[in-house]
Structure formats: structure tokens, C-alpha cells
């Protein structure tokens, strides 16, 4: 397993054991939304509750993207893996999608998977990290 995705699985397991998403309401598994910033879509609600930058959200709240840091520690990849996991947990990503992400190798190129009303596309390389976009199908 790769370092980045090992963290992804570890944090997802910890969130599941705790019964909530990081930054969310304990016991509910959902993020908290700021009363002054009402969310319009589930992706926006997840981003707000997980304290993810508004710049990560696109398409009027119908997509969210992450670029995590790889082993080369370059200036790219500023998103935290814990924020990515928080959003995936809030969007109720199933275990089989996490397993698909975890098994992705650099040679596999862009991968994709779906659940509920969402589609995810990602690439992984140890030097560049995990790049993920989730959007409404």
C-alpha cells in the first residue's frame, strides 16, 4: 500500500469508529454547517462542515476537488488528506470505493467509481499525491 492511501484508510476507519466525520456532529456522521452560511447542496454542506476551502468547491456546489501532497513535497498539493476523508465520509462513500482508491497505482492512470448520486475520478502517484474530484452524476 502507498503512504497517502494508507492514511486515507486509517482516517476513514477512525471516523467510522468514532461514529462521525471529522468536524461534524458527534454520532451523526454528518458535518456541521455554519448557521450564517446555509449550504445549498450536500457537497457544499460537506465542505462547510469539514472546513474545506471554498475554492475546492465548483460547479455551483455540484463538485469538489482535492490535490494532496506527495512525497516530493513540492508547492503543489496543499489539501489535507484528513479534509478529503472528512468530505468523503460526509458524502457516505462506501468501503468498496475507498478500497478502489487504495489499490490505485501510479501506472493505472485516472480511475473512477460511483455511489449514490456521485461519481469520483482520481489519480495517484507517490510523488504527486492523490488528486480527486467528486461530482454529482
Description:
With 137 residues, the chain is α+β, with helices and mostly antiparallel strands. 31% of the residues lie in helices and 20% in strands. It contains 4 helices and 5 strands. The chain has helices at 3-18, 42-49, 81-90, 95-102, and strands at residues 57-58, 63-67, 111-115, 118-125, 129-136. Strand 1 (57-58) and strand 2 form a beta hairpin. Helix 1 (3-18) crosses helix 3, helix 1 packs antiparallel against helix 4 and helix 2 (42-49) crosses helix 3 (81-90). The longest helix has 16 residues, at 3-18. Residues 17-29 have low confidence and may be disordered.
Topology overview:
Blueprint: H1 3-18, H2 42-49, E1 57-58, E2 63-67, H3 81-90, H4 95-102, E3 111-115, E4 118-125, E5 129-136
Antiparallel strand pairs: 1-2, 2-5, 3-4, 4-5
Helix pairs in contact: 1-3, 1-4, 2-3
Give structural attributes.
31% helix, 137 residues, alpha+beta, five-stranded antiparallel β-sheet
Q: Could you give a short description of this structure?
A:
The protein is of the alpha+beta class and 137 residues long.
Largest sheet: 5 strands, antiparallel
Q: What structural class results from the helix and strand content? A: alpha+beta
- Based on CA atoms alone, the radius of gyration comes out at 14 Å
Average pLDDT value? Answer: 82
The parts where pLDDT drops under 50 for at least 5 residues are 17-29
Q: How far apart are the first and last residues' alpha carbons, in Å? A: 29 Å
Helical residue percent?
25-40%
- How many β-strands, per DSSP? 5
How large is the count of helical segments?
4
Strand fraction: 15-25%
The global form is globular
Order of helices and strands: HHEEHHEEE
Going across the biggest sheet, name each strand in turn: 1-2-5-4-3
Amino acid at each position: 500500500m502507498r503512504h497517502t492511501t494508507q492514511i486515507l484508510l486509517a482516517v476513514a476507519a477512525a471516523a467510522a469508529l468514532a461514529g462521525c466525520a471529522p468536524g461534524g456532529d458527534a454520532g451523526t456522521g454528518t458535518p456541521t454547517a455554519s448557521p450564517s452560511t446555509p449550504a445549498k447542496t450536500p457537497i457544499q454542506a460537506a465542505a462547510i462542515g469539514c472546513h474545506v476551502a471554498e475554492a475546492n468547491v465548483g460547479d455551483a456546489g455540484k463538485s469538489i476537488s482535492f490535490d494532496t501532497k506527495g512525497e516530493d513535497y513540492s508547492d503543489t498539493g496543499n489539501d489535507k488528506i484528513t479534509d478529503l476523508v472528512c468530505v468523503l465520509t460526509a458524502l457516505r462513500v462506501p468501503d468498496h470505493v475507498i478500497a478502489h482508491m487504495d489499490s490505485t497505482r501510479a501506472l493505472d492512470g485516472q480511475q473512477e467509481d460511483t455511489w449514490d448520486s456521485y461519481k469520483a475520478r482520481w489519480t495517484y502517484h507517490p510523488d504527486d499525491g492523490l488528486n480527486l474530484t467528486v461530482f454529482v452524476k
